[in-house]
Amino acid sequence: MPRPIAATIHLEALRHNLARLRRAAPDARVWGVVKANAYGHGIERVFEGLRGADGFALLDLAEAGRVRALGWRGPILLLEGVFEPRDLELCSRLGLWHTVHCAEQIDMLAMHKTQSPHRVFLKMNSGMNRLGFAPAHFRSAWTRLEALPQVDEITLMTHFSDADGPKGVAAQLQVFRDVTRDLPGERSLANSAAALRFGGDAEVRGDWIRPGIAAYGSSPDFPDHDIAHWELQPAMTLAARIIATQELQPGDTVGYGSSFTADAPLRIGVVACGYADGYPRHCSTGTPVLVNGRRTRLVGRVSMDMLTVDLSGLPDAGTGSEVTLWGRAAGGAVLAIDEVARAAGTVGYELMCALALRVPVSVE
Ligand SMILES: *Cc1c(COP(=O)(O)O)cnc(C)c1O
């Protein structure tokens, strides 16, 4: 028998989340953001669940090739654009749309020989200070692009730094609005947080929203709002089984570093999941976990291949019991990946992206 740990990708949850995002941003088209191998879920595995999207957005040319290989003939957008001139040949061949965020990418386009002009997303740096033309240079970049025979339609794009927090999107939206006011073309501004929180505002949702994390069933602004608030469902479950139990006496400790000491008799379960499976080692005693669908807590330090859970109040739990590290338990109980991420001092994004290769994954 293989080690009892497995991840499951839930297609119905992906479909549900996509529909939820459409409701949040009515009339906008939706990019299914599948960068980083669909946030760790696997592009091929999520495809059936997300094929209702209007296009797929990602960063990597090889990943774009994988989406085309699945038979997808609709739009594919490279969110960072091309990295060198010959990438443009693949864009022409695969019909990829690409972001243009810097002058070098315009230079490359100007040199590119293509039969059919490319659709580009011209990106403004409206305050994130990562990719994009500064507001003062945006219009001249647009004018230059517009004059190129290699360029078809130009969509105007920016990215919010604080759509999930108290600062919000107002200041960046103002910058974007002022610079683009009289420019023609579609607009794309909103990630998951902006779409869910401000998608009711036509200016924020624009013509194309770009949700990633919410489609996978993680709340972009946890702990302010959880997935129940946003009506999202986990698209990934990580589950394992108890492979041993121990009866602790007061004063007994658990695991490396003896970080947990029992102050009363305590039964614990040893679970076949550790940090080499992608479960964060930073999770400490108290991190929530489901055993047979019932909520309990991690105790002690996470090892490479195992972790330990409190079985008090769970007399029926023992060797072989199902443990849900995140996602949905057999009986339907849900443990949001966001809660586990928070206990590790990180975000759901990092946990799903870090699911280890050794964990077998099935799709249902
Ligand atoms: C990753 C990414 C997104 C998706 O962000 P989420 O927070 O996962 O919704 C949107 N736009 C760009 C440019 C991105 O790189």
UniProtKB/TrEMBL annotation:
Substrate binds at R130, M304. Pathway: Amino-acid biosynthesis; D-alanine biosynthesis; D-alanine from L-alanine: step 1/1. Residues 235-364 form the Alanine racemase C-terminal domain. It catalyses: L-alanine = D-alanine. Keywords: Isomerase, Pyridoxal phosphate. The modification N6-(pyridoxal phosphate)lysine is found at K35. SUPFAM superfamilies: Alanine racemase C-terminal domain-like, PLP-binding barrel. It holds the Pfam family Ala_racemase_N. Its cofactor is pyridoxal 5'-phosphate. One of its GO terms (biological process) is D-alanine biosynthetic process. It is an enzyme of class 5 (isomerase). Its EC number is 5.1.1.1. The active site is at K35, Y256. The keyword Iron does not apply. One of its GO terms (molecular function) is alanine racemase activity. It comes from the Bacteria. GO terms for cellular component: cytosol. NCBIfam families: alr (TIGR00492). Catalyzes the interconversion of L-alanine and D-alanine. May also act on other amino acids. PANTHER family: ALANINE RACEMASE, ALANINE RACEMASE, CATABOLIC-RELATED. Belongs to the alanine racemase family. This is Alanine racemase.
